[in-house]
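Check these lines:
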Amino acid sequence: MPEIPHQYTVRDLDSPDGRRTTAMGSEEFEWFVRLIRAKGVMKRWGRRTHPYLQVGGWEYWTMGDPVEETTI
């Protein structure tokens, strides 16, 4: 979607050698997902509504799967 520039944060997935594949581990990721859901503002994007949290000029959202299962 080049007309809508964006980035996303993903849960750290297990790598074959046990190293982190992202800067944020699963515990931090779940903490941040809970923060977005607790403090975020509900906004509509297309046909869906998600909680969005603004932090330092960036806007974060979570896709809605249970905290333990969501990856984005």
Observations:
- The beta strands are 41-45, 48-55, 58-61.
- The chain has a mean pLDDT of 83.
